[in-house]
Model the fold of this input.
Amino acid sequence: MTRQSKLYDLMIVGAGPGGAGAAIQALEQGYSVILLEKAKLGSEGRYKACGGAMDWKLIEKLAYPEEKIERIIETLELHHLDGESYTKKGKGAVVWRSVFDKFLVDRVKDQGGAVKENEPLVNLEKQGEEYKISSPNGNYRARYVLAADGVTSPTLKQLKWPRFTKEDLIITVTEERKVANQHMQEVLGDHALHLFFGIKQLSHLGYGWLFPKNHTLTVGWGNQLIRVKNTADQFTKLLKLPLVRETLKKSTVEIYKAHLIPVGVRPQIWKENVYAIGDAGGFVDPISGKGIPYAIQSGQIAINTIKTCENKDRLDKQGRYFEETLEKAFLQILRKKRLARDKIYQDDQTLRQFLTLWEKYRSSEIIRRDLLKRIY
Done:
């Protein structure tokens, strides 16, 4: 037996918040872990197309260093292109995902986890009671596999798991623009994020956003994949909005990237000691597009499922326990949001009425208290 053929308890594919968070949880439970990441992390991490907005409670829970925060947020400005605007108050933060993910991966390393960067998954196959994983740089074995490698998950593709329906995919475009910090503050305010809505004018089933960082502005737009004919042309609609155009004066584009996110749960999220977590499982808020908290939580639930079922000698119940725990934690509300989303976006009048509610309540509270019955 060579060094490379060591049998790990867990192989986690993907070093984003879900994968790294699961690795931390597993190491704390006493499992041996190998974390496989296709990109080169380097000293600053790897770029991820993401606005990077987070609730302050998550920042505190993770003890995320304040010096790594790009901007502290106090309000969310919701603009409907018919002319209405709404202000949603609440503390949050904007971070670079590269820095945030690297922070979590460093914790994995500090706790003794094996991290293999710049190693994309090449092959995955089940051999008896374990899995053999191959990358360009080595072969690895593990008893459990966590797929934390995004909506197009190469891991689950290897295993021929069912894919997301086209109706459950959102196409997003992200630009990172270099903008003078003082100019951003003058136009957008010092502690505000801006979202733009308009079914007819901007996005049939999505929105645009401006997320200011320090000397960089993340400009983004998303829409349901099946409704998009020309992504670049439709993204340009956002750039032409007066507030956006004013903010982008004298700016320079540093990054332009299109990216898919799921807004519906994958048809299968567990099979034979393999777990889908984060975007790979479709654990994303269908209304806001928020996914980081659910990625972290789903990874932790997967580890707790393994531990519980091993302790009770009921490994045959893993799938059922995983799904039931997810349902109680957040899946039930995400499924309801998925149904509500189509009603919210049926026309601009209904959308504006929803924004009026969202100004005062969290979206989960709106669904849980059935406040939408006021508008349809």
The mean pLDDT is 95. DSSP finds eleven helices and 16 strands in the chain. The two ends are 65 Å apart (CA to CA). The domain at 3-46+99-164+264-342 is CATH 3.50.50.60 (FAD/NAD(P)-binding domain).
